[in-house]
Amino acid sequence: MQTYNTRGTCSRQILYDVTPDGLVKNVKFIGGCSGNLQAVSRLVDGKHIDEVIATLKGIKCRANTSCGDQLATALLDYKAKNNL
C-alpha cells in the first residue's frame, strides 16, 4: 500500500495500491468529506493509473487543489518513482 500526504486539502493522507498492470485499487482518503471521498475512491477503483490522472488532475477546490487533484499528484509521483 502506498501513502501520500496531501497538501492544501481537508484530507490529510491518501492510501492506495497500483497493480503491476497499472490499475488503481484500494484508494482510501484519511480525513476530508467522507461521502464524497468514498465516491471518488469507488469511481477510480480498477481504472488505469493514466485514466485516473487525466480525469482528476487540475480539479480545484481550496488552495488551488482538491482531493481528486491530490490523488492525481500522488499517482504522478508514484509513476515518477517507479519509472512508469
Describe this structure in words.
The chain is α+β, with helices and mostly antiparallel strands. It has 3 helices and 3 strands, in the order βββααα. It has a 3-stranded antiparallel sheet, with helices on one face. Strand 2 (11-18) and strand 3 (24-31) form a beta hairpin. Helix 2 packs antiparallel against helix 3 (67-81). The longest helix has 15 residues, at 67-81. The radius of gyration is 11 Å and the shape is globular.
What is the overall number of helices?
3
How would a textbook summarize the main sheet?
3 strands, antiparallel
Per DSSP E runs of 2 or more residues, the count of β-strands stands at 3
Strand order in the sheet with the most strands: 1-2-3
Helix fraction?
40-55%
Query: pLDDT average, as an integer?
Result: 97
- The best one-word shape is globular
The low-confidence runs, each spanning 5 or more residues with pLDDT under 50, are none
Helix and strand topology:
Layout: E1 2-5, E2 11-18, E3 24-31, H1 34-44, H2 49-56, H3 67-81
Antiparallel strand pairs: 1-2, 2-3
Provide a compact summary of the structure.
This protein has 84 residues and is an alpha+beta fold.
Task: Looking at this protein, list some descriptive labels.
3 strands; alpha+beta; 3 helices; single chain; 84 residues
